[in-house]
Amino acid sequence: MTTPLLRVDNLRIALASDGITYNAVENVSFEIGRGEAFGLVGESGCGKSITALAVMGLLRRPLSLGGGRIVLDGQEIQDAPAAEMRRLRGKRIAMIFQEPMTALNPLSPVGKQIAEMFVLHQGANWNEAMDRAEEALRQVRVPSPERRIRDYPHQLSGGMRQRVMIAIALACGPDLLVADEPTTALDVTVQAEIIDLIAELCAAKGTAVLMISHDLGLVANMCKRVAVMYAGRIVESQVADAIFATPSHPYTQGLIDSLPRLGERARRGRQRLTEIAGVVPSIQAYPAGCRFNPRCPAVTDICRTNVPEATSLPADGLVRCHHHG
Amino acid sequence: MRKLIWLAAAAVAVLGAAAAEAQDTPRKGGSIRMTAPYAASFGSLDPHVTPRAQDDIVNKAIQRTLYNWNTSANKLELELAKSVSVSADGLTYTYKLRDDAFFHNGRKMTADDLIFSYTRIMDGSKGYPGARYVRLIKGAVDVEKGQAKEISGLKKIDDFTLEMTITDRVDPGYYFFAGTTAILPKEEVEKGNFASNPVGLGPFKFKEHIPGSRVTTERFDKFYKPGKPYLDKLEVLIMAEAAARDVAFRNKEIDTSILGPAQYVAYRADPQLSKGILEVAEMFTRAITMNHDSIKPFQDKRVRQAINYAIDANLIISRLVKDKAYRATSWLPPSSAAFDKTVKPYPFDPEKAKKLLAEAGYPNGFEFELTTSQNESWGLPIVEAVIPMLAKVGIKLKPKLVEVTVLTELAMKGDHQAYIGSNLTGPDSLATLRCYYSKTPRTACNYTGFKNPAFDKLLDDAAQEGDMAKRNELLKKANNLLYDEAPVWFFNYNKAVMAYQPWVHGLQANPTEITHQYPEEIWVDANSPAK
Amino acid sequence: MLIVLGRRLANVIPTLLAVVALVFLLFSVLPGSFISGMNEDGRSAMDPAVMERMRKEMGLDDPLLERFAKYVVNIAVGDLGTSFRTREPVTKMLSGRIWPSLKLVMAAMTFAILVGVTLGFLAALKPGGLLDTAAMVGAISGLSLSQFWFGLMLMYLFALKLQWLPSFGYGDGGLRNLILPAIALGVGPMALLARTTRAAVLDVLNADFVRTARSKGMSERRVVEWHVLRNALVLVITIVGLQFGSLMGQAVVVEKLFAWPGVGSLMVDSVFQRDMPTVQGCILMIVLFFLAINTLVDIAYVVIDPRIRYR
Amino acid sequence: MSVALKLPRLRLKGGTSLWVGGSLVAIAISAAILAPVIALTDPVMDANLMNAEIPPCWEYPFGTDAQGRDIYSRIVYGARISLSVGIISQICNSLIGVTLGLTAGYWGGWWDDLVSGLTNLMLAIPSLVFALAIMAILGPGLVSLVIALGLTSWSYSCRIARAQVLSLKSQGYVQAARILGYGDLRIMFTQVLPNILGPLIVIATLGMGGAILAEAALSFLGLGIRPPFPSWGSMLSEARDQITTAPWLSVFPGLAIFFTVLGLNLLGDGLRDILDPQSTTRRN
After folding, report:
1. Whether residue C173 sits in one domain with residue C56
2. Is residue D103 part of a domain?
3. A110 in contact with C at a CB cutoff of 8 Å?
4. Which residues of chain C have pLDDT under 70?
5. Residues C79 and C167 grouped into a single domain
6. Which DSSP string corresponds to B243-266?
7. Can you tell me the ipTM of this complex?
8. Looking at the 3D structure of chain D, how many domains does it have?
9. Which residue among B124, B245, B404 sits closest to C42, beta carbon to beta carbon?
10. Which pLDDT band, with edges at 50, 70 and 90, does A265 fall under?
11. Which residue of chain A is at minimal alpha-carbon distance from C231?
């Protein structure tokens, strides 16, 4: 196998609270090849978003990198100096956030916010940067971009704003795009358009995607491989098709069961996930043993005491469950 | 280098001047920065408009009146006239006016200016405060009522001779030395903006007024006293806040400052500052005025005497007022000719007070409300010291704090049981004692409601008496009668204290008001830092 | 912008009218009158006959409603009446006081903004750091100071002990005389601004779009310059406006202490002397100033924040 | 939000200021309550001019004043007055503000317009100026002071109450309660008041500090508390002329004001972190 574009190895994210350090995320490992789309799935609070932030080097207090390695294109970046990381961010790895409403500066015209990328990373002057921003807007299929670049975010619809975010993220042709719930806040009708746009543009430019979502269906459609996270750990990782066919972890099973049968997507993940009894535990109160044990339908005594080891699945897959195999 | 030489020269000059400080020849030139301590602004620079002591500080520099108060002789004397002759009945005065007095606009003063000024003051539609003095002139009241255009008692004989007929046998000097009767030039008044551009006969001419901050005046070269004024410039800076004034004076930003008790102690104790202290017994008597009409115990002489015995006034004066006052014996101040030096003030004798109260039928005391302002010398702090003293003889005192403005109004309305205040008791002793004359209305200063036929008789006789020495004898008797009757608690006569910088000379100890300096006498030596 | 101005004006006029009425009524029931106030220094006795005349001249005995009606009509044509004390038009007295007041208020606000915003800003960049703690302890102490006490302390330290600055007065109206009163007046708004700025900057620093900016690979400095400053400014400007507007009224104490010839000291002096036309004029002036500054702030919003226009 | 974390830093900070502020205020309150017990002398009647202006010593820990009264005892008793000025005036402000705000938001219409107009008016006239006018009318004294300060700064609580009612109205709580047959008053008390109690307490706490400072300012201007009972502001104001000769006269009341107001401000800040929903939203 060739060197993957991104390799996350045994990642641990620490949370300092009232003088005590908790592991918000631990033992997380995955690989993304060049041009490959990789999905990270889990409920709110499972640690997927902070994993993405860790990859971006954007963890802020009280969160910090507790251990493990993040290797981008053969280069370890987890301890890279701030200046080094800044050069990577935006240029080689870019990110799209969940809330297009708040992720754009309300007091700055969107064109300018795109143009900043060219000024920052390509040394363009503002005039040519604005021209290229217009071009970038056109690429993400914003109608009449020549007028839109002067608009402020509040003048655009949610979908348009997310397109602007995509334009910003892809402006400098990054190798990796981290998309953190890019469609969650959008109207159902727009969601598919945005996903298609991301998929299409990334395919065209050969950009790899780390797609983060609570929506297993959405991720499975777009991504080649999928990892399911629960309470700071990856519980199962498989090829997308296989995960539907043979879910190996009770939690994955639960996620699949909660998907609407008729293929229609409900608007909010929370409503669907109520079908798994209970809630995600808070970081300060992770249960011992398998962290899913309080909610697991198949729980036994061992689940409450021992952390399950990873078991290999076909095609580089893995699962962490005492009851598997 | 040049600067250095200049500095050295300046140093030599300063040293030389310091060495020659003992010399008494006034130096010409320089400037002085005086302070106006009574309010945060001047009322008006039109002297007819305001009766405030604060405004008169400036008016003394710019304006002149027919009479003035000679501080060194401690009596009234002619200012704008060279001589005066009085008719046999004592009611017609003929003034020979100065023929060398010029207004700042260059015009010479004549009798017409006096007539104009006094007539203006009597303008009935305006209510100028000086009317109370000018009303002395025959026919002035008719002008005030609008029944006449001219004051019949004023007659111009020639440009420099004025005949004035008055209605009472009094010394007109007491009336026409007040700042509100200043002589103004008609043509300037009629321009309509006199208050912002005052013109007068004084030694300094108006230059600039920054409202709320200061008035600047400049030497007037045609002033009628030869060789005066000495100063080139006189500034009056408004500084109502005593603590700020203290800092400014110590910082040498001002040349004169008025001291309160606390600062008086500090300045006296300071080896440097103590050299520049001017003290004078002002004609103010501080007292607790008891309202005889409002509360029964006060109608009994023994109760009033008991209060005078019960309060240790000497202790309050020495400890609280820091000796910035003279113990009061009776109503008239020591500077009055009718003051009896042989009378001793009420001693502190609580036992006697208790006895008197018992005799009067109040063995267990009584309770009264004392209205007071926040004034440090005749207000709240004094009351706070008096409370426990009166409590010891059984009298319960409830203080009521008001603003000075309200205090005056309450006193005039009689809407009080007692109040503590400062009373102007000079220079006209007869007028001062009238405050206890039974026919004087409460609004006109009979704040006690005191009624005593013997006292009334003495005052009537005094008013009829043409011989000043005899009149003073009668007034002395009246004043001693007041001492015995004790219509008020006699507290103290104010000791006004002005601090001045060592380079200031020629300040006058004016007992009518220490801030009222005749500035033509003031000079500064070369040590003065002011430009 | 015109719409904002228009809407503002429509608000201002009723407020002003209400202020006029309120102030007029309040002071018509004040005990003591100008005439008894003439004896405020306890040194100038008055003659009852003269007092009567003065009451008549000043119309103090007319029915209240009649006086009020007259007053409002006169204000409409820009006549604030005649001062009891100086017998000059109140407008003229005020005109001499406005510039010193403005100068003091501007200087105090400049001090407050320069120090307060800078401190708050630096504190927010390193929350919990030494500077942050020191600045916030300082700010909360600044809010707990009695103004006249602080002014007095400044006076003693800088004028008397160090002799750096004159202790009082207007002088030639230059900077040297301005510094101490401006600091005494500005310390409260400064403290408030430091706190507000810190909170605003922290708020903005936690905003999603700042994370976006970071994800673009910007240095912290660029993030702050390009995205944080302007957004924090919108929040800070409200406080600046409110403080600025009311500063002229708050200046009362400082003006009195430092013998500064402003509208505030004129007002206090006039209250104590019961010079009602002047008091009313002063309050009207202070309120007008407040409203004017707030209108300016509204306009500033429109300039800074594109969202406002479309509300 | 996908990052479901509490920001512990804020909570810690609130804790510190709550603790420090609370202790300072507690000291002031206990001084006020225990005044007759812990004072060494009577603050009014024990004037003895022979003991005037003694610097701090063993017998008089804070020295004596110009009338020879023990400053420590006066400060202890002064706590009663200064704190009651703060507390009562803030209760007045809260009552006025909440009543106006609740009714304006609830009933709307011309009443709402009137209240909004009044609020703007109160904001436009600086409260010190307003208080000065009221003090001049009523004359110096504790009652006038409480009225002056209690009438002049209710606009903040009024705004908060009104905003809360409007937001509850838009969320349908009020309609729901009405459908259930609750009366207007009951709705206001059960639905609205509990929601604004937090911010109200914060405003009142901070306002108390402001009232104590305003009392000092008014004393300085000559319109303070009725004598002879000591308030810190009047003590400070009376002592200012003696600052070079007897500094302890002003130092101790000055410190009493400073630490009490500081305590109230810190306490208000600390409470805000706990009680004010607007600043807690960010944490969840």
Report:
1. no
2. yes
3. no
4. 1-2, 4, 30-51, 53-54, 57-58, 173, 308-311
5. no
6. HHHHHHHHTTS-SEEE--HHHHHH
7. 0.73
8. 1
9. B404
10. very low
11. A107
Q: Are residues C119 and C86 in the same domain?
A: no
Task: Name which of A234-243, D161-170, D273-282 the model is least confident about.
Answer: D273-282
C295 domain-assigned: yes
Residue D267 domain-assigned (yes or no): no
Interface contact D269, partner C, CB < 8 A: yes
**Residue D276 within any structural domain of the chain:** no
C-beta atoms of A89 and C214 within 8 A: yes
Q: Are residues C59 and C196 in the same domain?
A: no
Query: Best residue in C205, C211, C215 to probe A by mutation, most A CBs within 10 Å?
Result: C215
**Burial of A80 per CB tally in 10 Å (0-12, 13-18, 19+):** middle
* C286: chain D residues, CB-CB within 8 Å: 125-126, 129
For the domain that residue C263 is a member of, what is the CATH number?
Answer: 1.10.3720.10
**Residue length of chain A:** 325
Chain C residues in contact with A116 by the CB 8 A cut-off are: 213, 216, 218, 226
The model's confidence at residue B454, banded by pLDDT at 50, 70 and 90, is very high
Note down the domain range covering D195.
40-259
Smallest Cβ–Cβ distance between D2 and the set A17, A49, A63 belongs to A49
Q: In whole angstroms, what separates CA A268 from the centre of its chain?
A: 17
Chains A and B touch, contact meaning at least 3 pairs of CB atoms under 8 angstroms apart:
no
How high is the mean pLDDT of chain B?
87
Does C219 contact chain B (CB < 8 Å)? no
Nearest to D47 among B263, B387, B401 (CB): B387
Looking up tokens 């400080």, which residue turns up?
B21
Range of the domain at C289: 97-304
> Cβ separation of C250 and D128 shorter than 8 Å?
yes
Contact A48 D2 (CB under 8 A): yes
Tell me: the pLDDT tens digits for B86-134? 998 889 999 999 999 999 999 999 999 999 999 999 987 777 888 888 9
Does D14 map to a domain? no
**How close is the nearest chain A Cα to the Cα of D225, in Å?**
47
Tokens of B300: 């009994």
Query: Range of A302's domain?
Result: 246-260+273-325
Tokens of A285: 């109160």
Do the beta carbons of residue D214 and residue D145 sit within 8 Å? no
CB spacing of D241 vs B243 below 8 angstroms: yes
Last residue of a domain, one of C68, C90, C112: C90
The CATH number given to whatever domain includes residue D80 is 1.10.3720.10
Before A247, cis peptide (omega within 30)? no
Among D residues 104-143, those touching chain C with beta carbons less than 8 Å apart: 117-118, 120-121, 123-126, 128-129, 132-134, 136-137, 139
The separation between the first and the last C-alpha atoms of chain B, rounded to the nearest angstrom, is 24
| D10-16 contacts, C-beta under 8 A, 24 or more apart | D10/D273, D10/D283, D11/D273, D11/D283, D12/A18, D13/C128, D13/D273, D14/D269, D14/D270, D14/D272, D14/D273, D14/D274, D15/D270, D16/D270
Name the pTM for this structure: 0.77
